[in-house]
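Minutes, project check-in
Item: structure for the 554-residue chain
Input as provided by the requester:
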Amino acid sequence: MFPPLALLLPYAATVSASVHIWPSPKLDALEAQRWDQDDTINGFSSFVQPCTFFIRGNEDGSETGRANGPDWIRTAYHDMATHNSEDGTGGLDASIRFAEEQSRPENAGTGFQNTLDVFVSFTTRHVSLADLIAIGLVTAVENCGGPQIDFRGGRIDAAEPNAPGVPEPQGDLNAHIASFKKQGFTQTEMIGLVACGHSFGGVEHKPFPEIVPELNDPNNTLSVQHFDTTFDFFDNKVATEYIAGTSQNPLLVGANDTTNSDKRIFASDGNKTMASFADSSELFASTCASLFARMLDTVPKDVKLSDVIDPLPVKPSEVQIVLGTNGKLQLSGVVRLFNVTVDDPDRTVQLLIDSHSGETTTTTLALDRFSSAMGGRVQSPFYAFNLSQDVNHVGVIELDPAKGIEKMRFNINGKVEDQGGVGFKVEDGVVFSETSCITTVGATEDDDPVAGRFDIAVRTGLTPTRVFLEQEVKDSINRTVVKETDLERPAQPVSAGDGAYEIWSIQVNDANTYTIGAEIDGGKFSTTDTHSLKDLSACTPTKRRVWHKRRPGA
C-alpha cells in the first residue's frame, strides 16, 4: 500500500493557484461535497465508513459479502461506458438512472439503484446527480485506502437513456478492446482501468449465476466471489494475486472460460502491465488516480467541466444574513480551515467585518465542529460566527443595518486571509426579514402551517430588476430545477431597520422551503439561507383553519 499522504501535499501547499474565489455558489457546493466528505451537512462518506458497510445488509448480519464502495465505483463506470468518442455522445451523465438502462443485461444487479437511492437526496441546483456519481467514486476510493483523485464539476444529467456501452464478460478480447476504444481508452488503459476498478468488489451469484455458483459461506451469504482478498479496500492485490497465480477472481478462474474476461484482458499485453502493478503499489495507485480521473471526465461533448476543484484554504460556509425583528442585521455562519490541526489550543480565529461605511469590527470565533476526507487523512475545523464562545451553539452577530456588511476577512494567528485582497464579499441588499409570520395555522398542532407571509427586506435606494422566491423542485425526468415566484414592489413600502430597508411581502400558501433571489445591476443573486413557514411564529392575531364536513349529498 502506498504511504497515506503520498499524493496529498502539506497544508501550506495543498491549495493550488487555480482555486476559485468565494462566493461562487456552484463551485462552493461542489467543493464542500468533494472535500467535506464526512461533514454532517455535506458529506456522505458515512455510507462507505466502515468500508465493509452495505446499505441493504440486514441488521442481523444475514446479508454479507457486498459493500457500498464497490457499487459506487461500478455505477460510475457503467454510467460513463455509454460514451462514444467518435460522435461525443454519452458518458458520465446519470443516464444510468433510467429504467431502460438498468434493465439491460450489461447492468444486471441491484447496485446501481442502491447507489442512486443514496445520491439522489444530495442533489441540488448546484450539484447534479451525475456530479454526485463522480464524487461517489472519489469518496469510496479515497476513504478506503485509495489515492487522491482529481475531481472536476459541472456534469449535466441526461434527458434520456444512452446507447449500450458496457462490454459483457462473454465478449472476446477484440470486442473488449473495441468497446474501450469507443469510450476513449487504449488497450493498456483498458487493462489498467479494469484492474483499478476490480481492486474492489466481486461478482454476485444472484444476477450472474452462470459465473458464480452458490458459495454456501456463512460469512458471505450473498455468494459474492471477490476479485481479490481485500474486496472492500484499495490495494494492488488484484495484481499481486493474479501474477502469483493465487487469485480467485471469478472473471479469471471461473469454471466457464467464456466469461473469464479479466483473464483475456490482463494477459493481452503478455502480462506486462499487471506485472508492473504487482511490482509497485505506488505505480498502481498513481495509475488508478489518473485513470479514474479520466473516466470521471468522460462526458458528452457539449458539457464543459470546471477546472480541478481544489479545497479553499479558508472558506466561509452556511453564511446567513437576515433582518431581525429588532431592526438589526443578524449575521451567522462558520468558517472552515482546510487540513489543519483540529484542536490547536493556541489558534486564534477572528472575523473581520468591513461595513459599507468603511468601518471594521472584529469578533473572535469559537470552534464548532470538524470534517474529514480521505478516510481521516484530511481534517478541517469549523469556527462559528458567535459571540458566546459556546461550541454547542452557533449564534448571530448583530450589525447596524445602515452600515451593513460589504465583505469579511479572517485573522488567523495574526495572518489576515482575504483571498488576495478581494475579501469574502457578502450581499446584504436583499435579505429575509424575521417579521415574516404564519397567518393561518394547520387544523391541528401537528399539521404544517396553511398560509403565511414572507417579508423580504430590500436596502433603501437599491433598485433590483426583480426580487423573487426560489424553490428547488424536480422536473419531469427527476432533475433538480429552480421555480421562481416574483414579488411586487409595494406602492408604499414599509420602512425597516431605521430606514435602511423597505419591506416587500408575498403570501405563501405551503410549507415548502425557499431561498430568496434578486436581479441587481444585470447580475443574479441568491441567498444561501432557506426559509419555510414551519420555521416561523404566528402573526397576531392568528386563526386556526376550521375544516367543515360536507353534508351527505352536498
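Outcome recorded: The first strand starts at residue 202 and ends at 204.
No further action items on this chain.
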